[in-house]
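Fig. S4 source data, part A: sequence.
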Amino acid sequence: MTPDEQTFKTQCYVKISLDISSKCAETAFALNMNSETRKKLIENSHEHQHKDNLQQQQQQQQQQKILMNITLKNRKVAVINFHLFMMITNKPTMNKEEFSELNSTDSYGSFLMRIVNEKRQYNVHPCIFIQSFVTYPISMTKILCQLGFEPLPLEVGTALFSKTVEKFSPNYFAIMKYLWKTKGFWSLYIGVDLNLIHLICERCVSYNVLKCLDKADPGKTNDRLCLLDYAYFLKQLTKQSIARCVGVTVARPFRTLLCRTVAQLIFDENKYTGSVFRRFWTAYEETGFRGFFSGIVAELIGEMCFLWISAHILRYLRKMILEQSEIKKKVRRTELIFPAFATFLIPRILKGKFYPFHLVATIMAVNGSSLKVANPPFYPIFDRWQNCYAYMDEIKQFDRGRKMFNRVYKGAYESLNGKLYALPY
């Protein structure tokens, strides 16, 4: 054996002997320790554990309070406070999925759910009735314009975004002023009782049907699931569609009576007057039970097409924003600004596309009754709503009554005393 190997061997022996001696000393100290010192050490260890447990419980309670106090208005502030609390307490922060779900109140998912599964559109708050009562003259004027009531002469001018010369129908407020002067102020509120009943019936029925569907299939609606899981999105949209269809169908008789009550203003008739029950009986005598639901198919087609197409478009836009690269700094700003603009613009564009179905539903509600506006030469008698749709397409009047202002008229007209008047046929 070389001298170097001998020195290394002796060093190892010395180190092992030192370790053995230190352990022996520790065991000797532990054996010589009396019972009192042992109890004190055990109690101190238990106290430290108890304090640690209390601190952990307090921190968890504080975290739960922060999460429970989150509201629609201060969600973003709460997220910041939550992260600051986690940093101060040296706890691990939330992962990206939890943070994005907590921070999605002002994001596009919430805007999507206002169309897919939002119960606020079925609200029956008193303010809704006050708003409906105040704006009823506009709704009543829209029904008259949909039926072809144009008492004022056409105006000639240039279109808003072009230099072409067009003929324009008077705006709603000019027609309301004409009705006030010729038929009295209360003519603007004829049928307001039926309008309120229709509103209550449609909203309450839709809300209760949606509530029953939620009980049959429990589970909270989740914005992220609607974006990530297409099957879940379709399930929520189907619930909304069923509730909407049932509400519109049940409230359709009141809508039919409303249209007929308003339509009698055109030729100053008094057939649909008196109580609601009397008007129901008059409509039943003229068109039977089937007449209460005349035009319901056209209205449901318009509602469902608008609901499904708008929900799918908004879902696609939201997914497109989320799939953008996180490296871009303007993604978060775009995510907050663009959804509000999209949800404001898209429904208005789509409502214009499906407006002909609602126009046909209004005409069919009156058609077949004994009112002059529902018979030739004002309108032909339609057996089905498809015939009415084809007739309105033939005379190019699908935009009738859609706008309050800038109402370009492209239909037939006649000249009386040097002025042009629109013809409804």
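Fig. S4 source data, part B ends here. Strands lie at 155-158, 165-169, 407-409, 413-416, 419-422.
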